[in-house]
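Usage

Read records sequentially. Each one opens with the input sequence:
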Amino acid sequence: MEQIYIKNFIKNSIFFKIFSSAFCTFAKTLETIGYIGFNLRDVFILVLKGKVSIKKTISEAARIGVDSLPLVIMISWLAGMIISLQLATEMVKQGGGNFVGAFVTLVMLKELGPIMAAFAIVFMEGSSIAAEIASMKVTEQIDAMKTLKVNPIQYLIAPKVTAAILIVPLAVIIACTTGILGGLFTSVAHTELTAVGYLESVRMGLFLKDISASLVKGAVFGGIIAVVCATIGYETKGGALDVGKATTKGVVWSITIAAIFDYIISALFI
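and closes with the structure output:
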């Protein structure tokens, strides 16, 4: 009797509840990472075997790239304008006007271009991918595909991941170019810098290593967004409420993992 009382006391204690909740969260996190890893492995195997539909990949690339493009352009333009607005005036006063374009270019290529493009795509299309596949899962459409001998990974996930890896670097190029032009607009409007002087400074800030790092980040971010959101949607169980949770979870996980890989790639290209 005393042992039962002690067990109940421990189970009802706040420390036990906190520990239990933390342990469950950690276990679910590891489980999700495992699912993501397995799906990514399956996608690479399908790509190497040439079993990914080219037509569906092109369709997904158009969806991911074109639908997200207006948001990519808008936030990249604003990012370039804000950077230039904060720094151009002071740099011109200190005699560093010839380096404004180079500074904006380096910032856009190294960090803001890939990050802005990734954020736009995860908000526009990553959430859509998670919601789409989660809805198919909870309405048993994926189970029906398995019954018909259709591989859901091959049909649903592989084209999305392949398309994202190919198309997001192009979105990054557009984001970087738009941000640099946004900096040009602000610099000419608010300082004595000329467009020619700014563009000459941009040329000074262009390095092949930074361009390569930016493109690599775009490909990695694209793959992360697609495989993470698709996997979380694919593992959804329950009903409409769980579809909403999967959508949010897909966005949060994508941004978090992309930030981790952003640091790793930046460290590799120093």
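Summary fields computed downstream for this record:
- The chain has nine helices and no strands.
- The chain has a mean pLDDT of 86.
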